[in-house]
Design a protein that fits this description.
Length: 33
């Protein structure tokens, strides 16, 4: 019944250094402006 959440997080962490120039973190409040 659970999604493979930790597998998804782990795969992100493994590739985070490669993708750090392509990842955009934005908050909902910033999008409303």
């Amino acid at each position: 019944p659970y999604c493979p959440f930790w597998h998804h997080i782990r795969s992100y962490c493994e590739r985070a250094d490669e993708l750090k120039d392509r990842i955009l973190f934005i908050k909902y409040e910033d999008m409303k402006r």
